[in-house]
Request: fold
Amino acid sequence: MTKIDDLPVRDELRGQSPYGAPQLDVPVQLNTNENPYPLPEPLVARIAERVSEAARQLNRYPDRDAVELRTGLAAYLTDTTGYRVTKEQVWAANGSNEVLQQLLQTFGGPGRTAIGFEPSYSMHALIARGTGTGWVSGPRNEDFTIDLDAARTAIAELRPNVVFVCSPNNPTGTAVDADTVLALYEAAQAAGPSMVIVDEAYVEFSHRASLLPLLEGRPNLVVSRTMSKAFGAAGLRLGYLAADPAVVDAVQLVRLPYHLSAVTQATALACLEHTGTLLGYVAQLKSERDRVVAALRGLGLDVTESDANFIQFGRFADTHAVWQAILDRGVLVRDNGVPGWLRVTAGTPAENDAFLGAVSTVIKEL
Ligand code: PMP
Reply:
């Protein structure tokens, strides 16, 4: 049988593994930070209507610039942050992963480097690899906050072209404060200039405000967002960014023509019409998240402060054994490879109860 390495693949892909959170068929799946609530029926009906309309014109290419959708996303950002964003500042793609890929195709690439502060979202490094961008793993403190002095030194020495800040950070859960992002931005401009990408995939779940207002007067800052989490639409594949209009223009140089299908645009527009209901689910998930944090602490476990729809908990001598023991009780959580720690997504109250039941049994047996 032919293996990948028998093919003339690029050297940097040899021996690597693809991104792969396990998709196991177990009763309680709390491992990929999905929203547990299916879209409400009135929204499902509206999607059907909008998609039927779009289907009548599927013989034509979709709106290449997704103007109506970008206008809707700009209005959503303005309404929820109080910071005025225009459609010229917004760009959308198939999931924020594609947004990040387009950004690295534009601002990274061969001979260039990106830095991220790990542990963080593993796709930042993988997208760097896929785009031929060098990757540097920057430091964090013991409590998983960014070690600002070390980060500034690393930026000054390495002069990366792209700096990733994930806020709230996956898999640790904590949001980054505005002062830290500003300090990183200043350091990156002094060394670079370089782009600073703030990945706000989980920001709607945060105790802290969005970092979006920092865009004012900072053309090298980008905020990326997604409809996969707060909008409960991971299956839709719709991510977006807000930045200076020049960044949106620059990304046009690498985006594939008509990358965002008419069906995707129609579905995302329907979701935006139901923002109020969907943000209601976010409020429920936030309070469930806080309940699970308190319950885990009540069990004597360490829990990292969470601003997201997931929680990092530990500390375990044998992380994998605990992950397996929880799985044996029908609950799938995530082992992100952070030594001593596991991550669980906030689910419905019943799912969270099942998780807490499993954990309390498992830790008694340790
Ligand atoms: N950023 C972060 C921090 C994430 O955790 C994820 C998904 N797990 C993404 C981006 C990508 O999400 P999507 O492509 O579904 O928008």
